[in-house]
Amino acid sequence: MRRILLIKTSSMGDIVHNLPVASDLRAAFPGCRIDWVVENAFAAIPALHPAVGELLPVSLRRWRSRPFSAQTRREFGAFRRRLRSVRYDAVIDTQGLVKSALIAWMAQGPTHGFDWKSSREPLRVFYEKVHAVPWTIHAVERNRRLAADALGYAVDAPPAYGIAASAAGAAALDATFVAARAARFAVLLHATSARNKEWPEDRWVQLGSALAARGLASVLPFGNPAERQRSEQIAARIPGALVPPAMGLDALAALIARARIVVGVDTGLSHLAVALGRPTIGLYCATDPAATGLLGGAHVLNLGGIGGAPGAAQAIAAALQLLEAA
């Protein structure tokens, strides 16, 4: 039985983009064991994939902020011992950064990564074998191509994310947000880490009102106090809109999985919605969806792009199109 280590630590969208690699590996090697190094904050995502065995969580962001603290030394030492306790048949770094390449270098087993033309940093010294993967293809396909080249199998089928919401996440959702049990709703993901990626509030209100007129409540989750305030501001102007309580990734995945449609800006949760098989619209205001946009077949649409935020009428028309097709 092959044992394979995947290294993709962050961010949320990047981790979602790596899920099809686990599906490909299980299809190519049905008996393989797949482990995954991931930031602790995002560990709930690969845990949803049935092909992923052991998770090796890291806290690289916190460790870098306090590199000499006793807690950092203790936690990093425990991670390193756990990492090196297994001899892998292949260690595949799809992150392609110094932080992930160092983890690959510490692991036990043949290491694979992008060659110098295929990554943002010169990492050849950290890997036993490097692979050329074009920048011109989508990030999902770059991940898949690297793993396929490393282990010698073909990737001809469309990407399969392979996840579903967990029973624990569904139970946590039902316990904290009763409306999710029966209501017909859309999830509106307005929050993003960069201001220039935000979609104007007036357009969210127009979209939510159009959905309400068709019997769909708008649910606006949040991740921090500022996002909660914006959720409440938008929801106050949309008939029947709801702001759920704060919830973890497991419960958020369950919420998204029950939505009739998800509309979101360039954020990891929008990619998670695609991975969960929901009709999803991506609203791009400052980035190019060609490289890292939503990828998931006929029930996924990307609107806008760099300097070209979509209008409310365009988003409403797209939402109605997906609802009719679903």
Can you describe what's shown?
This protein has 326 residues and is of the alpha/beta class. Helix content is 39%, strand content 16%. The chain has 12 helices and 11 strands. The chain has helices at residues 12-28, 60-65, 70-83, 98-106, 139-151, 167-176, 201-212, 225-235, 249-258, 268-275, 289-292, 312-325; strands at residues 3-7, 33-39, 52-58, 90-93, 111-114, 129-131, 185-189, 217-219, 261-265, 280-284, 300-304. The strands form 2 sheets. It has a 6-stranded parallel β-sheet, sandwiched between helices. Helix 6 packs across helix 9 (249-258), helix 7 packs across helix 8 and helix 7 (201-212) runs parallel beside helix 12 (312-325). The longest helix is centred in the N-terminal third of the chain and has 17 residues, at 12-28.
Provide the descriptors you would attach to this structure in a database record:
326 residues; alpha/beta; six-stranded parallel beta sheet; five-stranded parallel beta sheet; 12 helices; 11 strands; globular
